[in-house]
Amino acid sequence: QEGHEHSLDVRARAAMRLTSAPLLLLPLERLACIPWRVSHAPRAQLVDSEVQAYWALLERAAPPTVAPTPALTLYRDTNGWCPFCERVWLQLHAKGIPFDEELINLRDKPEWYKEMVPTTLVPAIKLGSEVIWESDTIMRTLEERFPEKPLLPSGDTDEREIIEERLAGCADMLAAGARFAYGSRDSLSADEVAGRRAEFEGMLDTLEANISSTGGPFLAGADFSLLDAFYAPFLERWAVQLPLSLDFHIRQSLRWPALDGWFDAMDALPAYRQKVKGDAYSWTAAVSAFTRMFAPNGTISDESAALIKRADSAAAAAMRSMPPTEEAEVARQAALTAARKLLENREAILADATNTEAKSQTHIERLDPCDVEYVERMLREATSRLLKRASVSVEPSDEEEELPPMLSRTMAPHEAVACAQAARLVSARLCVPRDLDGLAAAELRSVLHELACEAEAFAWSGSGGLL
Ligand SMILES: N[C@@H](CCC(=O)N[C@@H](CS)C(=O)NCC(=O)O)C(=O)O
Fold this sequence. Notes:
This is GST N-terminal domain-containing protein. This protein is mostly helical. It contains 17 helices and 4 strands.
């Protein structure tokens, strides 16, 4: 009973908030069409025990998977942005080595990590009692200790020699890329920018020639190797971010067709696209996060403000246009992964979605804490739809009652609006691969988009076209 009173109170407050400002602008005759008032709203929501029963039903349908015994621990950054970590992470997946992860917050590194790793940088791995750091050293050690599925040809072969030669040039080439990509932070003259652009183009020309000379599609021939893992984290983000920040297009440029083929080959590699690859939305959203983060003395120039605006609208467009894969079995698995993720993390998602003192992506408006029930309801519906997409049956047992739909035409419009806001917010906060792999995220974003559109339609029709 107490819970019920509370929920009415919550709805009353939500209704006041949602109606006060826009209603003042509405013509009187339209006000009469609003078919809802809080006290008359149908009671679509469930009491607490029913909500718990619903979650329990979903959990039963999608029990967590049992992970294989880890062979090592990987220490990497919390956001999944560190390219050096991504290299190692990709290698582990490509070799099929089971591992545990410890995420390190780079803005506040724990003392134990600083004591354990002399450079204090990520990545590091712990293999037995041995701690190893520096991505290059880690990756070569992994090749030695886990020789199955080698990513470096062994011995004194020509193939090995070519890879070693190309690996040796990698740091300088990537430094040229970074100088161009992040040059705007150094307030350069137009000539200096042009010089860095030419240097970066030269780097891409070399990659193009390398791919062609060894036949492609990978950077050293027909097979994925450590060389690809070294470059992938950088090329991936620059391909998405440079068109926005510097109107520079690596893909589909006509100048680097073999490199285009490399991106396609990487996308076909499950260890990459199903595990560590960031999606277009996340890399685009990161442009605005990075531009704010690296603003000199915290001051955002007019140029940076324009870039942030471009990135935010490109991110919003990307979020709405990322269709899930058409490969049925892959899509089914991805939907199941996404459903499990929501089940395991729902408390954290609820807290983030209603955290009015959020520290990251502060430009993405969170919901009022008193609207938490709508976020929860939307998460439940998203989980249930994902399970349906995964062909997992979510049937109540004979003793359990059939549960009502969480979104329905009978919802009060302000409730539908809050559900739609919650769906869009969760999609905007979802960062790949930090929170979820790209394929699972595509399923989740698509379900959230579907829910948001439905809820908006209910709000629209329920309010006579006013909300
Ligand atoms: N050469 C190192 C570079 C690692 C590195 O720069 N890591 C960055 C994250 S991308 C880091 O730990 N930054 C934290 C800091 O500078 O305190 C490697 O290849 O592992």
